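Here is a typical protein record:
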Amino acid sequence: MSSIQHQQQQEEEEEELNMYSETVTITSNKNQLNDEVDDTNTADDDSSSSSDDDDDDDEFDFIESKWENMVETGVVVNWPGSSRALTISTKLEEDNIAPLFNGTQWAGTRVWKAAVLAVEYLWEHHRHTTDGDKSMLELGCGLGVPGMVWHLLHKEQNKVVLTDQPSLVSQLQENVEHNFPASSEANTNTNNNNNNNNTKKKKNMIQAKPLSWSKEGLTKLLEECDGDGEDKFDICLNCDCVYEPLYGRDSWEALADILGVMAKASPNTLLVTSVERRNGDGLENFIERLEATGNVEPMKQVLRNADDKHHVIEIYITRGKSNRSISS
C-alpha cells in the first residue's frame, strides 16, 4: 500500500469514528430529552392528581369531584345527616357539549357555594314550613343539588320539581332517575286506578322539567305540578341566578317577574334567593323590580356569609302579600 493510500485510509477511519461519536452524542441527548419529558409528565400527573384539592368543591368536605383523564365527570354528595350519598354526573350529551363554551351553560354544571349554603339555611330554619308537604320548586337549578338534597333529607313525603333551560334537563332527568328511581317512577305512573295511591305518589316525587322564565311558562308549570291547585309549593328557590355580566339584564328581569307571578298565585310560598355577590351583579335592581310587582312583601336578608372575602354569599327571602309574617 502506498503512503498516499495509507493516508486516505486513515482519513476515512477518522471520519467514520467522528460520525460514530456524533451519533452517540445525538442519541445521548435524545435519551436525556426523553428523560426530561418523562419527568415533566410525571410532574404533570402529580399535579393533576392533586387538582381535586384545588377544586371549589373541596371547600365542603362532603362534596367530592370525580375525574377521568383530567376531566371532571361528576360529583358525589355525602350530605351531613343524609342516609346515603348522591352521585351526580356532570357529563353532557355530545349535542350539548358545544353550548358549554357559553358561560351560562357551563355555570349549570357546577355546584356553587350559594347552593350549598341555601340548603343549610333552609334545613336549619324552614324544614317545618307547613304541617303538610315540604315541597320545593327550584328555578335555574343546574345540577339540582339543593332540590335533590332537600328530597333526600325529608323522610316524610315531599314533592320537588327541578327546572332549568331545556338544554340541561336531559342530564338533570338522568341524575334524578339514577338517585331516586322510586320517586321519579311515581311521577310517570299514571295507570293506577287507586286515586288515593296516586295522590300519595304525587306528593312523594322528584322530577325535572324544562322552564324558560316567562309568565306563561311558569303558569303552565304550576298547572302541571299542582293539578287542582291544592298542592302549592312551600318553597321556591333560586341559587346564583342573578349575575348580569354573565346572564344579562333580561335574565334577572325575567326572574323577578316570574317570582312576582309565583307570589300572586301562591302567597304562602317562601321565595328564597341565594347569591354570591360579584361586581355589577345587578342584585339590588333585581330586588327593586321584584318588590315593584306589588305582589311580595319587602325582601329580607337572612344570611350574609363573608368568611371568604372572595366568595360572599347573601340569602334573601320574601312571600306573597298576605297576613302571614316572614320569619327568618
